[in-house]
Amino acid sequence: MISVTMLSGLGHAVFVAAGLLIYMMGTRIGHQHRHPSAAMAWVLGLITFPYLTLPLFLFFGTRKFARPARRERHQVLAIPQGGPSWATRLLAGMELAPAVHNERVQLHANGDEALRSLLAIMASARQRLDVCTYLFANDDTGRQIAQQLAASAGRGVSVRLLVDAMGSMGKAPAMLRALQRQGVQVRRFMPLLHNPLHGRINLRNHRKLVLADGQRLWSGGRNLASEYFVDRPGQPAWIDLSYEVQGLLAAQAQAQFNTDWRVAHGLALRKARRPHGTPGVHQQPVGGPLAQWLPSGPDHADDTVHALLLAAAYHAQRRIVAVTPYFVPDDALLDAWCLACRRGVRVSLLVPARSNHRLADIARERALRQLAAAGAQVWLAPAMVHAKAVLIDDDLALAGSLNLDARSLFLNYEAMAAFYGEQELRWLSQWCARLIATARPYHARQPSWARDIVEGVVRSVGFQL
């Protein structure tokens, strides 16, 4: 046994040096690019509290699975047609599947419409039905969805359900076990105990999608719980956004789900088949709605959606409109939006006056004050808004699961869809305008020194977690 005396001298120094070496190897060799404040926090923690910080780093520290791609310099990228060229070129450079024309795209104006679409897609499955969600609750809506999953399995459909272990922890264990007995394959993504991928506990799967036969896709920001769909006594449904697509976008999402399913089983990403291409591109309907699947997370070397949002801030000519429940961006994105304001772009941001996460509301205040000071229009919605959407001019709209905070931008497995069609852009623009019409303007107030310290601490801790 190592003596306390040894640990207080040479042994302690060796332990600290070993911890810093592990951090350096895990960060540099593994290409784990970090925000400077995050890197400083880990290093200071390893020096001052090494016996606590080193286990935490091994438990939480990994941010990326994928290494940067090594493309030959002479290789010419195939740039897809349609959509703003700056966006399609950037996304092609990050090796994402190209935009595709689809047979049909439908965005859901409210929870009732979204739930009907979800259940209809599940009922339409004939061969396979795949579901991925962050949260699956044992409430009226969750049980209704579970009944449809069981019914699909009962008629011979291959049903796979992937739930995030943290997001659904304690929500519906009995219901999930019952689904397994009824023939549904259930996997929990990165459980706290017996995780097949060690050191990845902090990387959560926040993607939400339902796929029927790889041809019909339901996705967006809604989890599988009542508050995302239906009004309850004294509890109106949250304002959220989802969509349904029939066409090749579903094939891109299917490839993504297959990879996530294998990773949840413990298969390393390098051995899994990543969704680079798009099956059947030549079968695209001529002139159908143009959309693109935009995954983001540890399974991609680049922070894909963050990079697109940065580029959009510098290419936007008229407007940037964003709807998000939580607004805690990194400094680069916040500065880019402030610069867009100063060069004449109309930046509008809508957030709930009070979200379901009090710490997120505290952490966002610095960013809201800075954005408002730069000339942006910040709006506070009276109800809980869980939707995630961004519009750039009249050329590009994003909708999906990604919040405008550091966890979604840099840690979570997320999925957005980029819409380039005139009809989808007009629908989303009108939807955002209706939300803003019901909101009140945000008025920045200078915080007290105590409040300023609290905001800084919460923001820093939030970035780590």
Automatic annotation (TrEMBL):
SUPFAM superfamilies recorded: Phospholipase D/nuclease (SSF56024)
Keyword annotations for this protein? Membrane, Transmembrane, Transmembrane helix
Q: What SMART domains does the database record attribute to this sequence? A: PLDc (SM00155)
Q: Which Pfam families match?
A: PLDc_2
What name has this protein been given in UniProt?
Phospholipase D-like domain-containing protein
Fetch the InterPro entries from UniProt. Answer: PLD-like_dom, PLipase_D/transphosphatidylase
Signal sequence range: none
The organism's taxonomic lineage, starting at the top: Bacteria, Pseudomonadati, Pseudomonadota, Betaproteobacteria, Burkholderiales
Annotated Gene3D superfamilies: Endonuclease Chain A
| Keyword Membrane recorded | yes
Q: Which parts of the sequence belong to the PLD phosphodiesterase domain?
A: 201-228, 381-408
Q: Where are the transmembrane segments?
A: 6-26, 38-60
